[in-house]
Amino acid sequence: KADKAVPDLIKALKDQESLVRRSSSYALGQIGEKAHAAVPDLITALKEPDSGVRENAAWALGQIGAKAVPNLIKALKDQESLVRSSAAQSLGGIGEKADKAVPDLIKALKDQESLVRSSAAQALGRMGEKARDVVPALIGTLKDEDMWVQIKAIEALGAIGPKAKPALVELETLLNNSPDKEVRAVTTSAIKKIKNELGNH
Description:
The protein is mainly alpha-helical. The chain is 65% helix and 0% strand.
């Protein structure tokens, strides 16, 4: 309902204070699709010196559903992990239309920061049919040292469905061996999704 403020928020993206630029980019993301006029300026904001502005700009582009996939792919290589994570989340939000990002998201599964790895795994689970090629990479991520990354990889395999059949052995092994209750619960759900969908095709 605040879409009438879009022109002024675009102007605010050039404010001399970084906090204003951060808030403006976040507000544009909250407005969503009706803020499409801000896309060129948000893409420019991905090159901002302030990492908070870059992070919010990456997030906002995903909320708007922008055709900014090449720019978000570049943001996956940002020096700040929060920016990389935000870019991965936005690519996941765009979904199948962001399938060109799959190779870069696979690389992000090996990022040094667990937050980026979990965001990349989640994004790969939202690539639809295009995600079938990422199953081997997600299987490898099941052994990640971070439990949250594991969970996001498990959920992604469940979201991929029947194409994730090659992961069943690893998922069942994880179900039998994981000491964590949450990991076992998520794994059970993923296995059911894969097997149920297989039974319906």
